[in-house]
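Q: Can I see a sequence and its folded structure?
A: Here is a first one.
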Amino acid sequence: MRDTCDMIVKDVQIVGGAGGGSVESDLSTILIRKGVIAEIRNGGTRNHGLQSDCRIVEGAGRKAIPGLIDVHVHLRDPGFPHKEDIESGCRAAAAGGYTTICCMPNTDPTIDTADVVRYIDRKGMAASPVRLFAVGAMTMGQRGTVAARIGEMHAADTRCRALTGHGIAGISEDGKSLLDEELMVTVLRTAKALGLPVMDHTEDSALAGGCINEGTVSRSLGVRGIPAEAETRIVERDIRLARETGARIHLQHISAARSVEAIRRAKEDLPGLTAETAPHYFSLTEDVVPRMGAAAKMNPPLRTERDRLAVIEGLADGTIDLIATDHAPHAAREKAQTLAEAPFGVPGLETGFAVSYSTLVIPGILTLRELIDRMSRRPAELIGLNGGRIEAGLPADIVIIEENEPFAIAGGRFASKGKITPFEGMTVRGRIICTICDGVLCYDCNQRACATPKEDL
């Protein structure tokens, strides 16, 4: 009797399976039923007695990895749809190999009540199979004066709650730091009681105000710089508050060598402390700013080669737990302004994996399995999602990648509305061939859309 299934992913080398991954030289066949991985069989599909009328995804011997998870994106919706909206952001996520993304609260209105959380949840479910989880604000309107309705957001009936037990993926004041320490402690204690991670933007606004890293390049261009100390001060404060409150603090977009070292020391007695960085901080430095201009303007800014190497070392030794993109798109006309006038932020969802693979895996800094650990398993652990692995019984979140063929990054082809990237023209490897989320093919590199059932790729 033939097996019945909805989809077959055939002839793939699984990385990130049970026990850390299969033997990568072995080909496997993945059977998917009702959005779940029903079975993984060694070998190709020949002689397995599989039905021929279900959806077939041809792996052609390529690697299959778990769907990527990005805990730090900006979708600009509600409030700024000319920059990005939920639909375009989810398309960009699928094109980048992401099956779960967490959007930051600096929207208009701010994500500070259950109503806004529900708006994002409903619109996300209607827009794409990719899972969209909201991250709630720490304070109302992100004004830093009154705590947001964290308990109300936590209790919201959302897809996030169904899968993690929490209505939101965490809380954050991203785009700024909450400097009122008394209020910060109140927020941390609330988050601890609810079991939520606090995803903190690490920047002391008293030292901010510039547009690129403070140093040789800022002086040569005659623009005000942002010192690394602006980040490290908040990192050190958050470490102290984590010890005092026992809250789970997750440090966002780490970019500076001193911050990496402070986190490394703190982890000796603070195992619950976690940190992220973004691909631009370990692949680029401030030296590209004179050539790229505002395309390379983000917050925190690109820093020095010493900082870049420290971030890489932090990823390699586990000081930095995971990689997030800090996807922050803007309209082309906004990024076309002068360095001082243009907004901070660059798109990252469609370049995150390839840049990370090319910068970390090809030179041998991380193995592919270690990269997947930092882009899928550990992000899943942070937000309490049962994922980040290709295993029978788990949701069918599978990405097929092409490791060998180089390609040039072209922002004009992004699904995101943000087309201006500091990686424009960079030759990379690690192309996303297709993305499957919950057993639905939501991206393939040829069609850029869901294919129809029973139609071979």
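Q: Show me another, different protein.
A: A second, unrelated one:
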Amino acid sequence: MRAFVLTKYGGPEAAELREVPQPRPGLQEVLVRVHAAGLNPVDFKIRQGMLKVIQRYPLPVVMGNDLAGVVEVRGESVTRFVEGDRVFARVATDSLGAFADYAVVPESLLAKIPASLDFETAAGIPLASLTALQALRDELQLKAGSRVFIPGGAGGVGTFAIQLAKWLGAEVTTTASPRGRALVERLGADVVIDYTTQRFEDHVRNVDGVFDLLGGETLKKSFGVVKHGGKVVSIAGMPEPETARKDLGRGAALTALFWIASYGLRARRPGNTVLRIATCSCTQAVLSLRNSGSWSRTRSSSP
């Protein structure tokens, strides 16, 4: 079968399209015939070796995190899917494999594609939406009446974050350019700040949480807009020690490295503010998507 394979860490020349053996599913796995795959910023970061400290892959490895396709073969212990089912998934982080004609995916990471979605749209959903879902539901623990600030709401993760925050019952404030304003309002944003003419820190006050997608100065200024005891969750900054323990299950060495690397940012936050700079892309959350209602067909590239 054809597959896009990472042969070494580096630039575009480090990956190539080649023929590889077709994988075979285990007892609790499913062989998916891939109809579409989603491309995410994390894919080029993996290729460049930027994430080696977190996840080092044995090379060569078939690349790709998001896929949509049809169940071709199911393992003997698989009970939730049958041959011919339309499915999508964010594949296992330690194996990848979405950029190929066929991919093996654990049953626990698969979900059926809603009838309203085509393969191309479905393939762009898993990683970005799971990132938003975990940050908002698991880390910020939003509920009805919560107030959340999501800077950069018109980007790939942001468009999902706005919809999911509204689904959880929260009031959403976001930033967007004049061009992106109509999009974020259509997705449900309650307050939209034009970042080309306004500073969000002048307009946002005492929110329950911030889901930062931009990092840098936006992350630093986010500490000033949350209420006493509020929480800032970011996917765009240097990971802090809790990421090594909670998200990655690593030991003291990586925890210490993240502690040192994130010290400057942690030192700036008010003592009553919780900071989590998390990976927020755990594959196990995919089954939660099945109960989240209808999906918007709006497409947007990541910022």
